[in-house]
Amino acid sequence: MSGTRFIPGTAGKSSSGRRRLRLTKHAAILSAYGFFRYLCRGTVSGTDALDKCRDRGFVLAANHGSYLDWLVLGGFFHYAYPLQVVYLTKERLFKHPLWRFVINEDDCLMVSDEGTKIIDRRDIGTIQCVAVFPEGTRSGNGSIGPGRPGAIKLAVKLARPIIPVGLCGFYDAWPRHRLLPRPAKCSIVFGEPIDYRLPAGAVLSAHTLNEETNRLMERISFLCGQPRS
Questions:
Q1: What is the mean pLDDT of residues 40-68?
Q2: Is the residue at 8 inside a domain?
Q3: Does the global pTM surpass 0.90?
Q4: Which of 107, 133, 168, 182 has the least CB density, counted as fewest CB within 10 Å?
Q5: Which helix (H) or strand (E) holds 163?
Q6: In what side-by-side order are the strands of the sheet with 162-168?
């Protein structure tokens, strides 16, 4: 039907059900961001990189060490730097007994569990800012794992820059093996944009794509001061 918008996970839900999901999501984001700002005394730097690309749009690429990562980023972009950010989110999380209550909104783009295919129906080209965790999963030991090339492929497809993001201390605050978070020194560091615009018809070779992915992960590692595994 013309004008109908698909929101993953909300099909068949009543307006009151969708309202409850929104309230749950905002409560989770507000709690996580408050935990970051006040208990972890979290800091944010490098926001001038966002200012440079805001009109054009960009892809955010961050390390992934904690349950807090996307919740705190969501809080920052909601409360401190108002900007709609949409996260690439694996399909299985839309069915997770906990996380489905805070991600079933239009700020998540559903991708296959392998991370190789976007299966959301929306036109990704209309989204101003897309956030990606290139590692594809949370770190098990705090170090930064190998990246997947999806972030760079997406940036090339959209003709937008990538802004690397270092999420520092988030693993210490809430690693995957701990049930609840604990205060730890945390910071968000935005790096300088990396432009992947190519001449019309040009494509990145597999070798170049791998090299650029490694370079992106090195930049993220530098920003957050964490070793790579």
A1: 95
A2: no
A3: no
A4: 182
A5: strand 162-168
A6: 43-45, 187-190, 162-168, 58-62, 129-132, 85-90, 108-111
